[in-house]
Specification:
The chain is an alpha/beta fold. The chain folds into two domains: 136 residues, Rossmann fold (3-Layer(aba) Sandwich); 103 residues, Rossmann fold. Helices cover 34% and strands 19% of the residues. The protein is built from seven helices and nine strands. Helix 6 links the parallel strand 7 and strand 8.
Length: 267
C-alpha cells in the first residue's frame, strides 16, 4: 500500500517546478501529509531577478496553487503542515535525493522543466536523476499548457511487463485511483524479437492474435487479484514498449502514468 505521510516538492522557482506544486498540495491534502518545500541553490544558479533562493510566503504559495484554478474544498493549503528549507549544493539531484532520504519522504513531486533547460526526461536532467535514484516514488509533472487541473485524474495508465517492479507500481496506482476515483488501464507491449542476420537465425513470426489474447487474459487475472474493482481496462498492443506507451497515452487522454523504473526492459 502507498502510505503518504511526507511529500517533497523541490523547486528552483522556475515555471516547470511551479507547475508541479498543485499536484503536491492536492496529494498532501488528500493524505493529510506534511508538505516539504525544498529550494536548491547551485553555485552557478540565481533566480530570474538575480536574488538568492528564499522561503515562499503563504500568499506566494496560494498564488501558485490558484494557477491551476479554484481548488475543491478538501484541497486546502491553509490546513497543511508546510516545512520550507533552502540548501546549497553542487548537484541539485543529489541534494534533493539526500533530503528525501534524510527526512524519510514518501513521495517526491517534481517538474520536468527547470532552469537547466529540460526538454524531456533524459540522462543528465534533474528530474531523471531524481527519478532514478530517489528512495521513494517520484511523480513528475510536465511544464505544458493543460486545462485539466491537478486534482482531476480520471484515467491512470500502468504499463505492465509482469516484473515484480511493475506489479509494485500497480499497487501504487491502485491507491492513487482510489484517491482520485479514477479508472486504471493495464497496458502490455508485445515486442517483436529481431535477430541480426549474422546470427544465422530465421526471423521469428510476429506474435499473432492468440498471443495478444493470452497476454490480455493474464492482465485480466492480474486486475482481479491486485485491484479487484470494475474500473479497469486491459490492453496488449504489438510494438516497441516506449512508443506503445506514448501512443496509447495520446490516443486515450491518460492523465497519469504509473511506471516502474526497473522492469524487465530496464525502464
Amino acid at each position: 500500500m502507498l502510505s503518504i505521510r511526507r511529500i517533497l516538492w523541490p523547486t528552483d522557482f522556475s515555471s516547470g517546478a511551479e507547475r508541479a506544486f498543485p499536484y503536491a498540495v492536492a496529494l498532501a491534502s488528500w493524505h493529510e501529509a506534511e508538505l516539504h518545500v525544498l529550494s536548491v541553490q547551485e553555485p552557478e544558479a540565481v533566480d530570474a531577478d538575480g536574488s538568492q533562493s528564499r522561503p515562499l510566503s503563504q500568499d506566494a504559495l496560494t498564488r501558485l496553487l490558484m494557477d491551476d484554478g479554484e481548488p475543491p474544498q478538501h484541497v486546502d493549503l491553509d490546513t497543511l503542515s508546510v516545512v520550507q528549507e533552502q540548501r546549497k549544493g553542487d548537484s541539485a539531484p543529489e541534494t534533493i535525493v539526500s533530503y528525501a532520504d534524510e527526512h524519510d519522504m514518501d513521495l517526491v513531486v517534481a517538474g520536468t522543466h527547470g532552469r537547466r533547460g529540460l526538454r524531456r526526461l533524459l540522462i543528465g536532467s534533474v528530474a531523471e536523476e531524481v527519478l532514478r535514484t530517489a528512495p521513494c516514488p517520484v511523480l513528475t509533472v510536465r511544464d505544458e499548457d493543460d486545462s485539466t487541473p491537478a486534482w482531476v485524474v480520471r484515467n491512470i495508465l500502468v504499463p505492465i511487463d509482469f516484473s515484480d517492479a511493475s506489479l509494485n507500481a500497480l499497487r501504487h496506482a491502485k491507491q492513487l485511483a482510489l484517491t482520485h476515483g479514477a479508472q486504471i488501464t493495464l497496458l502490455h507491449a508485445v515486442e517483436e524479437v529481431v535477430y541480426p542476420s549474422a546470427y544465422g537465425i530465421e526471423p521469428a513470426n510476429l506474435p499473432g492474435p492468440q498471443v495478444i489474447g493470452r497476454v490480455e487474459a493474464n492482465l485480466a487475472d492480474l486486475a482481479r487479484t491486485e485491484i479487484g474493482y470494475e474500473h479497469v481496462v486491459v490492453q496488449a498492443n504489438l510494438g516497441y514498449a516506449p512508443s506503445t506507451i506514448l501512443d496509447y497515452t495520446q490516443e486515450h487522454e491518460v492523465d497519469l502514468i504509473t511506471i516502474a523504473t526497473h522492469g524487465r526492459s530496464g525502464l
